[in-house]
Amino acid sequence: MVLFGGRSGEHAISCATAGGVLRALDPQRYDVLAVGITPTGRWVLADPDPERWAITEGRLPQVEDTASHVLLPQAVDDRDVQVLEPGELPRALGNVDVVFPLLHGPFGEDGTLQGMLELADVRYVGAGVLASAVGMDKHMMKLVLAGHGLPVGPFVVLAPGEFDRDPAAATAKVESLGLPLFVKPARAGSSLGISRVEDLADLPAAIQAAAQHDPKIVVEAGIVGREIECGVLGGHDGDRARASLPGEIIVTDARHDFYDFEAKYLDEAGVELVCPADLPDDVVAKVQDVAVRSFEAVGCEGLARVDVFVTPDGEVVVNEINTMPGFTPFSMYPRMWQASGLEYPELVDELVRLALHRPTGLR
User: Where does Mg(2+) 1 bind (predicted)?
Assistant: First the structure.
């Protein structure tokens, strides 16, 4: 089952990711069931045509409600997925061996969906409940990474309503980080709700923008350095995870202060994705080491993308870990693995095999 869409603000990006995976799955090897989750949370049979889910001319795809509603297996000894249609008895669609959950953001990438699949004893691609939840919450993620001795930049957390209750105290708390600042929803991705703040007078507006996506807000100190990403792929039979060659994001359009949502998905001409990144061999090795250690610290499985800053003196600082990175053929994660010798269809197949070989339950 390729599962995508969902209730988060990253619904459209999830759909675009699903289009890439649906195109890559070999129909000679896999019987693929496409299931979409609408923005209101209803599970429906979806069109398996990859073109239906592409971002074209700025149009963002969306899962629409249909009359064919999908029910997951209800017990550990049940593998049947059923469909409910008006006036009909439930109809079995067949057994599901593995779910490929391509949801980004809350209510999909944050451990909630993974918990439901665990309850039904269904295998799935990617991180488990705890790793997904930690990776989704930038506050908890930074605490876990720092606790494992990984380099994390200075940050503060504003609890829900904290700024509204005492703007002066919250501003003073943030001011200690210096300028510029990056104000972010704690539990959102795809650069949604993120603002770069170069004047504290702009802080209230940035907090308001972030709060539209999450009442908990993370404020980070700006770090001077290159934005480097590294793909991580789980190992087989207890082997350590593997790291790809790093890639670099270069924002070339002055309209974007940083790699924001529009630059990522709607203005490809304004961004250059360089892969592999032009880095000295020793820095490449350092980035890969930090990426794998971050993967292990959070307890990831399957895949993750680790985003770091490389400072002018060659130090590596972790920005964040993404447990379900963008996965279209043009996204950085598959590009990095392509540069490392693993083509997109082979990468998708490897992720499915990792999931199929993974035991269910506690592990």
Answer: 307, 320
Residue 10 is a catalytic residue: yes
Question: What tens digit of pLDDT does each residue of 215-233 get?
Answer: 999 999 999 999 999 999 9
Fold of 134-151+224-356: D-amino Acid Aminotransferase; Chain A, domain 1 (3.30.470)
4 is in an annotated binding site: no
* Catalytic option among 10, 109, 248, 350: 10
The per-residue pLDDT for range 133-158, each reduced to its tens digit, is: 999 999 999 999 999 999 999 999 99
Q: State which CATH number among 3.40.50.300, 2.60.120.10, 3.40.50.20, 2.60.40.10 fits the domain covering 2-124.
A: 3.40.50.20
Reference 93, options 83, 107, 105, 78; nearest CA is 83
- What is the chain's percent helix, strand, coil content, to nearest 5? 30, 25, 45
Q: Is 26 annotated as a binding residue?
A: no
Mark whether 8 is an active-site residue.
no
244 is an active site residue: no
216 annotated as ligand-binding: no
Which of these is catalytic: 132, 195, 294, 331? 331
> Which one of 14, 132, 190, 244 is the catalytic residue?
190
